[in-house]
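Hi there,

I know you've been waiting on this one. I reran it after we fixed the sequence typo, so this is the corrected version. Both the input and the resulting structure follow.
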Amino acid sequence: MTGTPTPAPAVRLASPASRLPSLTGLRWVAALLVFGFHAGTMGIIAEPGHQAVMDWFFTLGLSGVQFFFILSGFVLVWSARPTDTRRAFWRRRVAKIWPSHVVLWAAALAVAAWFADPVGRGVALENLFLLQAWDPRPGYFYSINTVSWSLSCEFFFYLCLPLALPFIRRARPWALWAVVVAVPLLILALWPAQALVPEESRWWFTQVFPPVRSLEFWMGVAAAELMRRGRWRGPGLPVASLVFVATWVVAAQWVRAELWAALLSMAYILVIAAAADADVRGRRSPWRSRPMIWLGEVSFAFYLVHVLVMITVLRLTGDWGAGFTGWWGVAVVLGFLLVNLALAGLLHRFVETPMMRLLTPRRTARATPQGADAAGERPGAPGPAAGERGNVVPRPRPADPQADHRPTYVDSR
């Protein structure tokens, strides 16, 4: 971005840019985890044995949002244009997220009107302009289309990054490593720190408050800058994937609530960095097949629609809170998965993509010395809040239910 200092000559910077299709596929995995968590907490499956399996796989599924936040920081730093302006960056981010959000905001208000659910004007306006994550009052931060609280956090991250990027480019490697190491410890420290917050606001403080949730974003930022300079040291994709699976199983089964988010943040950053490195170096990756790339491209739209669709259908059919016996519960969950995918594909095709083309600033140059386009940075391509098919990164030199969410950091109930 304009005014970004040139790194010290001693630092080996990247040369030509490459795409990161593996991060697109991984983004779908994160979206699927969030979907599974919400489907599990809605009580769709009445059969205890089937519900137990659902819980085993998706009990930590809400941490998929944690993955999104880390990935956003990683991609945006790796793909930052040295000649970009802050205004152009902010305009692209608004063009990527806000139009689809407005569509779901309007749809959620229509559903509320159909069921005669009261919606205050202040709640609606806060949600429309993505300010709700700053409001600790119950019924405000989870409101309208409840999942949009994370977009409110993302907007805060996007506002901060262009202001912080000059300092990030000048930071010493040890300082960047300190951020990567410190974030899991700070997440862990939220457990005792919440005692300083009024009890009724502790959930909001640990789960929703944008400065707190930005810890994950800055972790991705620091890791990306280290990789950009060729200073990242981490396992390859096969080992990183095994570490993630092992961490997930251990955290889900045996780790106390105040520990698992910190552990997963480390596992996520290892997988993200390893997948990016595999793509840049042309190594094998299971996440960049054509179906996985498409799923990743529509994952942002899928995330926006899934809770509203499931709750609306269950209320219309009278099955909200009742559950389905036998294999019907599993069938209904799979049906919701397919319906949400179809709606997400439509939203991506007819809202997200054309609005990016319409609202994104035109490029003034075809390439830059240290990298080219980022995912979602060119008209019509999905951005870091959704799929990452368009990610272009430097090539290193070889060397709610509203009250039923489980914690991302701590169990404050």
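Quick highlight: The chain has one domain: 32-394.

Best,
R. S.
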